[in-house]
Amino acid sequence: MRSIWNGAISFGLVSIPIKLVNATENRSISFRQIHTEDGGRIRYRKVCELEDREVTQGEIGKGYEDADGTIIPITDEDLSHLPLPTAKTIEIVAFVPADRIDPLQMDSAYYLAAGGAPAAKPYTLLREALKRSQKVAIAKYALRGRERLGMLRVVEDAIAMHGLLWPDEVRAPEGVAPDTHVTVNDKELDLADALMDTLGEIELDELHDAYREALEEVVAAKAAGEAPPETPEPAKAGKVLDLMAALENSVRAAKESRGEEPTAPEKKEAQVRRLPERKTSRAAPKQTAGKKSTATKKTAAKKTASAKKSTAKTAQGAKKTAAKSTTKSTAKSTAKSTAKKSTAKKTTARKRTA
């Protein structure tokens, strides 16, 4: 691996010659900008605004833009007078526990390689001291024209250095957390713990960049004149109606993916429960089983009594109707007989008169 910086580690009065090597590499696929009509490359050229011409790298220097837009030229000679004792030295300033370092501060990672045979002894001494103390070293160093903060730790048999952001370069998480007050109960926490336990751990070496692999397949297909492979549509995420049901389903799905059979309570609880709909009117208060049976008996008795009353009323009505019809028929027959008698009397009287 090619070194990007040569210097020394200052460990008290001990000086360890080292070489700085990149510990990471960028494996992402990069694209060039092209003209879509003819496929020509799009390039950026460095042009002087005053002379309106392209300039070479040797003609380019540094300048600081003031608040009013004025450019103040800064030369390499001006920078050489800066009080930068760490220009070629990684100066260890303290040893602290690893958990004192906020992961938000971590930046680029490097390996520190011993610079020759004379550096092997002090290099090994520093490495073993870090191992036994179970601490990390905080150091200052200069790289690419500025002083930086670093953390030294042991990785296998080598010393690695992580570039750290200065504390004032890390933003506070203001306005990020939810403003709404939310209460989480113990059952929800238990389900979340069960989900974490079910998912378990994973070897980070097994993870890979699936997007980059798919992109490589697309590039290879286009280069061969073939149609790019079709990507399956992602599953549509359903609406989370109940957090508990979502957690229960997640635990069940995680167990099934690992070949474990969910227990009977989990199968029963894994059914999605919809939230109850809001009612516009107040519901009647619930009654106990004893009150319900008593009320049922009273209702049945009331129905029986009303049925008897209606039957009695019907019978009375029938009797009244029959009595009325009998009275009417009697009156009719009496009227007829009276009429006959009067007719007979009239006839007799007429005969007598004749």
Can you give a write-up of this model?
There is one protein chain. The chain is of the alpha+beta class. Among the domains are: 116 residues, Ku70, Chain: A, Domain 2 (Beta Barrel); 58 residues, no CATH class. Helices cover 38% and strands 21% of the residues. Strand 3 and strand 4 form a beta hairpin. Helix 3 packs parallel to helix 5. The termini are far apart. About 18% of the residues have low confidence.
What does this entry show, briefly?
This protein has a seven-stranded mixed barrel.
CATH topology tier name of the domain at 1-26 and 83-172:
Ku70, Chain: A, Domain 2
Strand content: 15-25%
Q: Largest beta sheet: what is the strand line-up?
A: 1-2-8-11-10-9-7
Number of strands: 11
Helix count, DSSP H or I runs of 4 or more residues? 7
Secondary structure category: alpha+beta
* Mean pLDDT across every amino acid position: 76
CATH class of the domain at 1-26 and 83-172: Mainly Beta
Strand/helix succession = EEEEEEHEEHEEEHHHHH
Spatial separation of the terminal alpha carbons: 167 Å
Please tell me the CATH architecture of the domain at 1-26 and 83-172 by its name: Beta Barrel
As a whole number of angstroms, the C-alpha radius of gyration is: 50 Å
- Can you tell me the overall shape? extended
Largest sheet: 7 strands, mixed, barrel
Domain Ku: 52-181
Region (Disordered): 251-354
InterPro entries: DNA_bd_Ku70/Ku80 (IPR006164), Prok_Ku (IPR009187), SPOC-like_C_dom_sf (IPR016194)
Protein name: Non-homologous end joining protein Ku
